[in-house]
Design brief:
heterodimer, A: 276 residues, alpha/beta, Carbamate kinase, 37% helix, 15% strand, B: 267 residues, 8-stranded mixed sheet, globular
Chain lengths: 276, 267
């Protein structure tokens, strides 16, 4: 038959199509090694804090200093207003989604360097995107934390968006995928709202707060606005190690520490594997 | 118009569907509209050695004066071995993705050495800004097919094998650069109702839309499911063709826009 022409190595998948559903399911349920199970990831919203300058950002940074004395942190941030401006100019110039994603990484890097400058006395610096993955365990042995530009390295390999041309994998998604790969202990998204609402609380006074929700329910609600990237819903659903994340209001910086300590102080979004 | 868009983007939640749909009016430029992305299969092609690869290299060389080719490579047998060992040792999907990447790098470098005498470079993800120059100067460049997601590879719906592999990485290059063709070179004529290597009754499907293909929910497909899913939202990459590269002349025909395998369209 055909297969005799193949030069195989014997292993579980040989002579099988990796696109066969039965083959794809191999490994389902097997345990995954957690690389950094004691590390917390905190994503600081750039629009919520850095874009508002010192008054909004310094209290959050002060709180991070405090936490860094006790806990190992991976801190990420996004591009905020500059990325939105970039999207506008780039769309007008006819740039495709992948190029928008590539360029937005630079805004996030700029903001990572601002945080890195402020946390330098603690030995916490902004790591170049190409080093963050492989060297993360080493950095975290050497320093209490690291900062990285939160855009996942999808760049020109960004997926076409289901609606429109804005890249769908942005910094919230990046934090949640990284947490899954490294097996981080907690994921906290720090925003300037208390968490998830059924409507945009900045626009609607009667918006209802959602303190805890399963991703499948959240998807069904089909909310018009979300305080995080919508693609996070798809990502979290398939996660095995990182089964939930919490959105907290960083205008009360104590909540960041509470979230890291496992307290329910904002909105918890979780998948079916979440126990809590 | 740009002032209005800036204002909207700055003041609206970036997940607002109305805002997002509004951006669709900004049609993206086709950055390399004359180029073709070609993917050489790993298990289906490279692993067969010179018998399969040498005639294909000859055909690529014959087409160099006429067509621009961005050539990506699959991973294949060694990636499967790595996935197998990796899963047994508890590696997360993000690490399995890296292991697959290393194999597609090996295959890309071998294709590079086979085309080196024609001045064809191998480029890494960071080198794509040189791609237009290489295409203008030499009409081709070689890259490894895995998207460089590294530790940011998302989990699959079932199991642990990275869902975004070399078919996807190549497809996304054709989508972002707005290339003329996306051609997958495999060892089958194209898409069948089942794996034709195992099921003699499998029927050939010459043309199908991505939507129909998703509805059929076949047990086995010839191209990564994520490509088919992405095609339903494609802006540029609205058509792909899977061809049997074991038959001499198929690549040339596909480059000339002929239908020789299975064509999957966005709609």
């Amino acid at each position: 038959m055909e297969n005799k022409h193949h030069n195989h190595i014997d292993s579980l998948y040989m002579r099988e199509s990796l696109l066969d559903k039965k083959v794809m399911a191999i490994g389902e349920g097997s345990s995954t090694f957690k690389m950094l199970p004691y590390v917390h990831i905190v994503k600081i919203g750039a629009s919520s804090f850095i874009d508002k300058g010192r008054e909004a950002t310094y209290p959050v940074v002060d709180k991070m200093r405090e936490i860094l004395k006790k806990e190992k942190l991976v801190i990420s941030t996004g591009g905020g207003a500059r990325s939105k401006h970039l999207f506008s100019v780039a769309l007008d110039l006819g740039m495709p989604t992948g190029v928008l994603a590539q360029l937005a990484g630079e805004d996030a890097l700029g903001n990572a360097h601002i945080l890195g400058t402020l946390l330098s006395p603690e030995g916490v610096i902004a790591i170049p995107p190409e080093s963050i993955g492989h060297l993360l365990p080493l950095f975290l042995q050497a320093a209490p934390g690291v900062i990285y530009a939160g855009m996942p390295p999808y760049s020109i390999w960004e997926h076409p968006s289901k609606k429109g041309n804005i890249p769908s994998h942005r910094t919230d998604s990046g934090a949640i995928i990284l947490a899954e790969t490294f097996g981080f202990k907690t994921v906290t998204l720090v925003k300037d709202v208390d968490g998830l609402y059924d409507k945009d609380p900045k626009e609607f006074k009667d918006a209802k707060f959602i303190d805890k929700i399963n991703v499948n329910e959240l998807e069904k609600m089909n909310l018009k606005t979300l305080p995080f990237n919508r693609v996070v819903i798809d990502i979290l659903r398939n996660n095995k190690s990182c089964t939930h994340f919490q959105v907290v209001n960083g205008n009360n910086p104590d909540l960041i520490e509470d979230s890291i300590n496992g307290k329910h102080v904002g909105s918890i979004i979780h998948n079916d594997l979440y126990e809590g | 118009m740009i002032e209005l868009l800036t204002k909207k983007l700055l003041n609206t939640n970036l997940e607002d569907p109305d805002l997002l749909l509004g951006t669709e009016r900004y049609k993206s430029n086709k950055i390399l509209p004359e180029a073709n992305v070609i993917k050489i299969g790993g298990q289906s092609f490279m692993d067969r050695g010179r018998k399969a690869v040498f005639p294909l290299i000859e055909e690529i060389k014959e087409n160099l004066p006429k067509h621009q080719m961005i050539i990506g490579t699959g991973a294949g047998t060694r990636a499967r071995h790595a996935y197998s060992v990796g899963i047994d040792m508890g590696m997360p999907t993000g690490v399995l993705g890296l292991l697959g990447t290393f194999v597609s790098i090996q295959n890309a470098k071998m294709i590079h050495y086979l085309l080196a005498d024609h001045g064809i470079p191998y480029i890494e993800p960071g080198g794509f800004s040189q791609l237009p120059l290489y295409l203008k100067e030499r009409n081709a460049a070689i890259f490894f097919g895995m998207p460089p997601y590294t530790y940011w590879q998302r989990n699959p719906e079932i199991g642990k094998i990275p869902p975004y592999r070399t078919d996807t990485g190549c497809y996304l290059i054709s989508e972002t650069y707005g290339t003329k063709n996306m051609i997958y070179i495999k060892d089958e004529k194209g898409l069948y109702t089942n794996d034709p290597k195992k099921d003699k009754n499998a029927k050939f499907i010459p043309k199908i839309t991505a939507g129909e293909l998703m509805e059929r929910d076949l047990d086995d497909v010839v191209v990564e499911r994520s490509v088919i899913e992405m095609m339903t939202s494609a802006k540029n990459g609205r058509q792909i063709q899977i061809i049997n590269g074991m038959e001499k002349g198929n690549l040339t025909k596909a480059l000339n826009g002929e239908h020789v395998g299975t064509i999957i369209t966005s709609n």
